[in-house]
Amino acid sequence: MKRIHFVSLGCPKNRVDTETMLAQLPGPYELTADAHEAEVIVVNTCAFVEEAKVESIDTILDMARMRDQGKLKKLLVTGCLAQRYPEELAKELPEVDHFVGTNDLDAVAALLSGKKRRRLNVSSPDRQGFDWDLPRQSSMPGYTTYLKVAEGCSNTCAFCIIPALRGPQRSRGIESCVAEATRLAQAGVVELNLIAQDLTAYGYDLEPRSNLTALLEALARVDGIRWIRLLYAYPRNFPKGLVELMGREPKIVPYLDMPLQHISESVLKRMKRGTSADQVRRRVAEIREQVPNVVFRTTFIVGFPGETDAEYRELVDFVRESRFDRVGAFAYSQEEGTPAHDMPDQVPAEVKQARLDELMYVQRGISRELNRALVGREVEVLVEGKSDESELVWVGRTSQQAPEIDGISYISGFEEDLKPGMILRGRVEQVTDYDLVVGPA
Fold first, then answer.
1. For 261, which DSSP code?
2. Residue 129: what pLDDT?
3. Is 61 helix (H, G, I), strand (E, B) or coil?
4. Which of 25, 83, 103, 396 is the one with CA 20 to 30 A from 364?
5. Prediction pTM value
6. Where are the alpha helices (DSSP H) in 33-148?
């Protein structure tokens, strides 16, 4: 039996693609976590920004060295980098045997079984026949997973290459989403993290048209699912009834990941975000009013072309006044193939870095203050396992801590036997800037 090793880079959407490829492996392959033992290695790449591209290339080269250091016989590169630069990569990376695009997940199994032999397996990302019913082999603990409910994006943000890599928005039918959620719940999953490039645009492309509100109502009826979390909600396209449903449905955790990118009116226009500063402020206020204890996660871009010091200061002031629970910030990356690439007044790298450092310093203080306010509050916490630091301490997450991107909760003092996947009621006893210590309520 041949051993195969997978490397998945980038976002959770890429992880789901990796899990789909894993589930289609032909019979004579065994998964291994040790790249040195693998005869086949698959690297699922990211190409969203320059930093991600560099990481992907470095990883490919690291894996290619296994031909001399390990047992490697075949190297496959899949995902966004392969979709974006297939011919260039084929020329510059002779050590890679096959390249597979974002819309060609089934090609991996065909290549490994000998049914396909082409080096480039990269079709148009606009292909409509996306097979939502392909099986997945989970790479996460059995109690939590991501549920991809749409592929691609139909927005035209000036800085973003994703539509060119993933194609336009293609929503998955509610029946298909519920069927997978039911299978996952029967297998022990209690937490669903909904993902898409633009979650709040879900269903607008379906016939007949649907929306995220209808999808959530259906998923909330799935027995066994305890937590449903919303990630990547575009601020413009909130469907009717969504915020009200979030406020009253206990299975929808009070957490929202809504990338805002900026607050300056002029920067938002240059970014082609399709929303105004006033709309952003009203959306944030609406959600906070109707969803008690909501945790807001958002992202911002600093140093977008033409960003003046005054526009940047407006962003810093907005972060200070809004007091978001979680903030991710990025220095603008000049990506070829996007409208912003050729915009005038590109901001110097050292200015972008200084602005990024200051913004994250401001947010760190806000996160520290908000965490301190949690001391003494009762919370639900999902048990994940024993801490690497001590056998006496367990770790987990509250409903307001998303997997892989937020802090964790250290769990101690409970007399009952703890098991991964349990959801306990506890009380916050101590905090750090990002993590919590939770004891019995």
1. B
2. 66
3. helix
4. 396
5. 0.94
6. 50-64, 66-69, 80-84, 86-92, 107-112
Structure-block tokens of residue 147: 């549920």
DSSP states of 67-85 as a string? HHHS---EEEEEEHHHHHS
Residue ranges in the chain modelled with pLDDT below 50: none
Do 245 and 157 lie in a common domain?
A: yes
Strand 29-31 to strand 144-148: parallel, antiparallel, or no bridges (unpaired)?
A: unpaired
Burial class (CB in 10 A: 0-12, 13-18, 19+), 262: buried
Q: How high is the pLDDT of residue 391?
A: 77
**Within this chain, do residues 231 and 317 fall inside the same structural domain, yes or no?**
yes
Q: How much of the chain is in helix, strand and coil states, percent to nearest 5?
A: 35, 20, 45
Domain count of the fold of the chain: 3
Q: Give CA–CA dist 65/267, Å, rounded.
A: 44
Distance between first and last Cα of the chain: 51
- From the list 83, 171, 162, the residue with the least C-alpha distance to 128 is 171
**One domain, residues 368 and 382:** no
Structure tokens at 211: 């929306």
Pairing verdict, β 423-431 and 436-440: antiparallel
Domain assignment of residue 138, yes or no: no
Give yes or no: residues 274 and 406 share one domain.
Answer: no
Rounded CA gap, 133 and 24, in Å?
Answer: 12
Are 359 and 428 in a shared domain?
no
Residue 290 belongs to domain spanning: 144-372
Query: For residue 296, which of 230, 359, 361, 355 has the smallest C-alpha distance?
Result: 230
Cα separation, 150 vs 194, in Å, equals 10
Question: Is residue 376 classed exposed, middle or buried when 0-12, 13-18 and 19+ CB atoms within 10 A define those classes?
Answer: exposed
CATH number of the domain that residue 205 is part of = 3.80.30.20
Mark whether 194 and 291 lie in a shared domain: yes
For CA atoms 178, 195, 146, 75, the dihedral sign is: positive
d(CA 175, CA 13): 20
Instruction: Reply yes or no: is the peptide bond before residue 208 cis, omega within 30 of 0.
Output: yes
Contacts of 292 (CB under 8 A, 6+ apart): 247, 254
Residue 381: what pLDDT? 96
